[in-house]
Amino acid sequence: MGKSTRKKLGADETTDETTAQQEGAGQNPARFAVDALQGGRARNALLCRSGISASRAGLLAVTDGKTARWSRSLAVCALAVFLRPAAFAAPDDTLPDTAPYLGEIRRAPNGELIVVPAKPEPQVSSAPVDALPGGKGTSATGRLISVGPTARIHTIATAAALARNGDTIEIAAGDYPQDVAVWTQNHLTIRGVGGRVRLLANGASAEQKALWVVRGGKITIENIEFSGTRVADKNGAGIRFEEGDLTIRHCRFLDNENGLLSASDPESTLTIENSEFGHNGAGDGYSHNLYVGAIKKLRVTGSYFHHANVGHLLKSRARENHILYNRLTDETGGRASYELEFPNGGTAYVIGNIIEQSATTENPSLISFGAEGYKTSTNALYLINNTLVNHRPAGGTFLLVKPGSINVTAYNNLLLGKRPLNTGIDGVFINNPNVEAGSFVLADRHDYRIIKDSGLERTYVSPPVITGINLAPQQEYVHPAATRLLPGTPTLPGARQTMQPDNPY
Question: How does DSSP classify residue 120?
Answer without folding.
Answer: P
